[in-house]
């Protein structure tokens, strides 16, 4: 097991190592930081994902029946027209 | 305030160490179900309630790069507000605030930040209709709907945090205008991005107030025809010692009511707070956009000396604040008798002119802004409110000049008395300040 000091806070006058990272086997164990008065703390997600923010039939209010005919691959890829998609060559405009 | 964030990449969290009861964030996950454009971020907040904000990054966990806070809007759930400890969830709709992006390499990560209650983020928005929704945003870019959205001139009040402490001493005043002396603040504070508007007044008081504007165009104009008593006292008593600063505003006053409704200790700024915020780092005889002030030395203070630099940042006598040259009401007194007030004359809709470097609008001109200090002011070295030696004294300080003022009176350092605290004037308005702490 390896212990690594990650941060020292010179601005509070007391050099205290408040974060310890423990590297154990294949897992990374991270001790979570707490803040001193006034300081923010942040944490990133432990996972990373792919993301799709293109207009989606589930999120635009189209009915379920209509939704079932939608071919996601046929969405309008025109970046200037985010409120439309295609069903079999017909452009559907989302109001 | 130290706003450095400590970042942790938590693949597996095994334990924690806390020196004091300050917030911790752990177990952050991000997910997007197949076929949905809704992204869910879950996290655990420990130790103490905190303001939670979210950023989204690409480029993976090893070297995450923010997509820009302006793209991480359309949030709901446990974010941009005071959150209690426990397992919490945020919902993000990227199709609304960051549309038409397809990231296929599995590099998108979430960053959750906890802000202690004594160091909230730079922007605070108070909902004047519900009174219970107080939102916080890291930056102007992150403000929901954008800083210039009309909602912040109508049913919400948007406040900007002024980092006054870290600025150290600064020179208050300006040569030939007011005595120059150094001020060093001991606390940060929030101040209104805009002057308080007539619609905002309505949401708190239940009735409109203001001389300028008709029902069709008054809402986003600054509220005026203000007296100090309306804002902080009650009735017309000029010796109302129970509500003289630093005592709290009277329950029936605007500031008393807005505090009761929102829980935020809104008040008028001190004149030192006002001037520091107005200047935004520009000292001396300069407008707050950094351009030099025109200083008029002739004896006709009401004359129309046009300062094109002032016209960029302020409604003033030369760009619509007063009736045009040759018009019937072309006198300083005539404007107040003008029955044809429209969007064209007198006050301007707040935010009509350029903001200063800290994103504050209408610090020069439009309406004179009432401050807490007793006339003649004279802020001490720590910027404390001047209360003088006679607390029944009936005048306060007002700053910034107004729509019918010539250039000299709009100077960052210029001050004048408010008139009697019991009397209303159509050139007196205000902008609120609040402590830079969470309301609870």
Features:
heterodimer, A: 95 residues, mainly beta, three-stranded antiparallel β-sheet, two-stranded antiparallel ribbon, 1 helix, 7 strands, 33% strand, elongated, disordered N terminus, B: 440 residues, five-stranded antiparallel β-sheet, four-stranded antiparallel β-sheet, 6 helices
Gross morphology of chain A is: elongated
Q: What is the number of helices of chain B?
A: 6
The Rg value of chain B, from CA coordinates, equals: 23 Å
Low-pLDDT stretches of chain A are 1-35, 58-83, 85-89
What is the percentage of strand-forming residues of chain A?
25-35%
Structural class of chain A: mainly beta
Separation, N- and C-terminal Cα atoms of chain B: 19 Å
By DSSP, the count of extended strands of chain B is: 20
SSE ordering of chain A? EEEEEHEE
Please report the distance between the alpha carbons of the first and last residues of chain A: 58 Å
3D architecture notes:
The complex is a heterodimer of chains A (95) and B (440). Chain A is mostly beta strands and 95 residues long. Chain A has 1 helix and 7 strands. In chain A, the strands form 2 sheets. In chain A, strands 1-2-3 form a 3-stranded antiparallel sheet, with no helix packed on it. Chain A has a two-stranded antiparallel ribbon with strand order 6-7. In chain A, strand 2 and strand 3 form a beta hairpin. The longest helix of chain A has 4 residues, at 64-67. The model of chain A is unreliable at 1-35, 58-83 and 85-89 (pLDDT under 50). With 440 residues, chain B is mostly beta strands. Chain B has 6 helices and 20 strands. Chain B has helices spanning 94-97, 198-205, 228-232, 254-262, 271-279, 308-313; strands at residues 12-16, 24-31, 39-46, 50-58, 65-66, 75-77, 81-83, 86-92, 102-115, 123-127, 134-137, 156-162, 170-174, 178-183, 189-192, 368-374, 395-399, 415-420, 428-429, 433-435. In chain B, strand 10 and strand 11 form a beta hairpin. Mean pLDDT of chain B is 86; it is low at 1-19 and 324-343. The interface between A and B is large, with 43 and 68 residues.
């Amino acid at each position: 097991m390896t212990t690594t000091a990650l941060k020292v806070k010179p601005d509070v006058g007391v050099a205290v190592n408040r974060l310890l990272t423990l590297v154990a086997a294949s897992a990374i164990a991270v001790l979570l930081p707490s803040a001193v008065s006034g300081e923010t703390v942040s944490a990133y997600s432990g996972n990373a994902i792919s993301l799709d923010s293109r207009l989606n039939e589930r999120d635009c209010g189209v009915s379920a029946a209509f939704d079932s005919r939608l071919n996601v691959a046929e969405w309008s890829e025109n970046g200037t027209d985010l409120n439309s998609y295609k069903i079999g060559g017909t452009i559907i405009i989302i109001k | 305030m130290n706003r450095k964030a400590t970042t942790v990449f938590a693949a597996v969290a095994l334990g924690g160490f806390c020196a004091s009861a300050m917030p911790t964030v752990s177990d952050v996950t991000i997910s997007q179900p197949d076929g949905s454009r809704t992204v869910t971020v879950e996290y655990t907040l420990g130790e103490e309630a905190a303001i939670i904000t979210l950023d989204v990054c690409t480029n993976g966990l090893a070297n995450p790069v923010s997509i820009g806070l302006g793209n991480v809007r359309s949030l709901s759930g446990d974010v941009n507000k005071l959150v209690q400890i426990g397992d919490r969830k945020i919902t993000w709709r990227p199709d609304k605030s960051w549309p038409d992006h397809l990231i296929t390499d599995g590099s998108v990560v979430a960053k959750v930040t906890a802000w202690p209650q004594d160091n909230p983020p730079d922007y605070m928005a108070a909902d004047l209709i519900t009174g219970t929704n107080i939102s916080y945003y890291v930056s102007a870019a992150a403000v929901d709907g954008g800083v210039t959205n009309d909602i912040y001139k109508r049913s919400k009040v948007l406040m900007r945090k002024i980092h006054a402490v870290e600025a150290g001493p600064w020179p208050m005043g300006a040569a030939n205008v007011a005595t120059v002396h150094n001020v060093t603040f001991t606390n940060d504070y929030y101040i209104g991005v805009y002057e308080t508007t007539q619609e905002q007044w309505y949401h708190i008081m239940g009735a409109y107030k203001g001389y300028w504007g008709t029902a069709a165009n008054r809402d986003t104009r600054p509220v005026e025809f203000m007296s100090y008593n309306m804002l902080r006292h009650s009735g017309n008593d000029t010796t109302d010692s129970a509500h003289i600063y630093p005592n709290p505003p009277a329950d029936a006053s605007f500031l008393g009511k807005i505090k009761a409704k929102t829980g935020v200790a809104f008040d008028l700024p001190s004149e030192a707070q006002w001037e520091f915020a107005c200047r935004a780092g520009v000292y001396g005889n300069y407008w707050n956009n950094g351009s030099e002030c025109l200083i008029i030395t002739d004896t006709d203070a009401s004359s129309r000396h046009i300062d094109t630099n002032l016209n960029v940042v302020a409604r003033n006598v030369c760009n619509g604040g007063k009736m045009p040259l040759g018009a019937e009401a072309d006198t300083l007194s005539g404007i107040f008798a003008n029955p044809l007030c429209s969007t064209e004359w007198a006050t301007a809709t707040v935010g009509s002119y350029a903001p200063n470097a800290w994103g504050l609008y209408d610090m020069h001109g439009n309406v004179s802004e009432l401050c807490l200090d007793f006339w003649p002011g004279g802020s001490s070295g720590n910027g404390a409110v001047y209360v003088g030696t006679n607390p029944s004294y009936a005048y306060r300080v007002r700053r910034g000049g107004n729509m019918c003022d010539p250039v000299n009176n709009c100077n960052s350092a210029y001050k004048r008395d408010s008139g009697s605290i019991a009397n209303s004037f159509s050139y007196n308005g205000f902008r609120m300040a609040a402590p830079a702490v969470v309301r609870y």
